[in-house]
Amino acid sequence: MTKTILVSGSSRGIGRSIAERLLSDGYQLSLGVRNPEALNGTCFDCDQVLCHPYDAQDPDSASAWVNATVKAWGRLDGLIHCAGILRTTPLLFRDGEEDDLDDLWNVNVMGPWWLTKAAWSELCRSGEGRIQVLVSMSGKRVKGQMAGYPVSKFALMGLCQSMRNTGWDQGIRVTAFCPSWVNTDMAHEVSRVSAAEMTQPSDLAALSSQLLALPNAAIPFEVALNCALEY
After folding, report:
1. What pTM value is reported for the model?
2. Does a structural domain hold residue 188?
3. Does the N-terminal or the C-terminal CB of the chain have fewer CB atoms within 10 Å?
């Protein structure tokens, strides 16, 4: 039976590349995006794909999306978290920038948490449920003056570990993707590394698809990727 995969943040960047690759590899997809109409006329406008409204800061939208997916496809086998935001908020943030910290926490941490919770029972029912999370190398180390973003990503890595521990006996396997610079608009806002030197979204998409096809005993918890040497 064809497996069904939810992908958040699939309207652009890495999430879109992953969704495109999985579609070409024959998966049924459920895409959560702010504006589903924006995908009309694209490769996702087909019978193999369900597009549903999703706001990472709204727990109700997570539940509604999961429920619509199960109603449409009758199953849920995988969940890929790609929705996220970047703020360059430093340690010594200015008055008013605390709102950026709230946004980082709500989108980068609580968004995946709420969505995972909503999908959990269906992933357990699969027996081979897969959760992939786009964490970032910023969930493993801090460089430069940013504080709010890496702190949210360190928290997301902790959430991934909790997902793994809680779901292990039910066959759920979790992979945290930790790339450094990826060729996306978000990276170009803060990095001087050229687009050609960055990790390409299509390469992450290939890894995502490959891991979805592996059995429970062969799933890595963490995949760290560097496009430049770090010490």
Report:
1. 0.96
2. yes
3. C
